[in-house]
């Protein structure tokens, strides 16, 4: 009896949701959870709904615009590379590989 197997064609492709790739989906989800908690906190302390909804709506819109702009600007792994480059001290930066290729090896023995 023959068995039919489905082949997953997207094995090496990044997770994508409405144009957001990789870690940006997590950033958006975390931001939305934060906005939900902010709304609940404002509502519980007695702030009017006419104040809560515009504040949360404005912050939510800013969150969506900010995360999508970061996703389009840096791509899937570009933001991590950007922060890694910012955190590297200037005296460790090398513009070429010549420093490493001209090193002489000492032989023991």
How would you summarize the topology of this molecule?
Layout: E1 16-17, E2 20-21, H1 23-44, H2 49-74, H3 78-87, H4 98-101
Antiparallel strand pairs: 1-2
Helix pairs in contact: 1-2
Order of helices and strands: EEHHHH
| Overall mean pLDDT | 81
Describe the global form. flat
Structural class: mainly alpha
Nearest-angstrom radius of gyration?
24 Å
Characterize the largest beta sheet: strand count, sense, and whether it forms a barrel.
Answer: 2 strands, antiparallel
Q: List low-confidence stretches.
A: none
Helix fraction bin: 55-70%
**How are strands sequenced across the largest beta sheet?**
1-2
The fraction of residues in strands falls at under 5%
InterPro entries: DUF4133 (IPR025407)
Keywords: Membrane, Transmembrane, Transmembrane helix
Organism: Parapedobacter defluvii
Protein name: DUF4133 domain-containing protein
Kindly describe this structure.
With 109 residues, the chain is mainly α. The protein has a domain at 18-85. 57% of the residues lie in helices and 4% in strands. The chain is built from 4 helices and 2 strands, in the order E-E-H-H-H-H. The chain has helices spanning 23-44, 49-74, 78-87, 98-101; strands at 16-17, 20-21. Strands 1-2 form a two-stranded antiparallel sheet. A hairpin with a 2-residue loop joins strand 1 and strand 2 (20-21). The longest helix is centred in the middle third of the chain and has 26 residues, at 49-74. The protein is flat. The chain crosses the membrane at residues 24-45, 51-71. Keywords: Membrane, Transmembrane, Transmembrane helix. This is DUF4133 domain-containing protein.
């Amino acid at each position: 009896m023959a068995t039919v197997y489905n082949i997953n064609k997207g094995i090496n492709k990044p997770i994508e949701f409405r144009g957001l790739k990789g870690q940006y989906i997590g950033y958006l989800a975390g931001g939305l959870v934060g906005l939900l908690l902010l709304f609940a906190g404002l509502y519980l302390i007695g702030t009017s709904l006419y104040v809560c909804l515009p504040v949360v709506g404005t912050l939510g819109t800013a969150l969506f615009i900010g995360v999508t702009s970061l996703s389009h600007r840096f791509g899937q792994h570009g933001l991590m590379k950007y922060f890694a480059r910012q955190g590297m001290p200037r005296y460790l930066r090398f513009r070429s590989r010549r420093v490493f290729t001209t090193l002489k090896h000492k032989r023991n023995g």
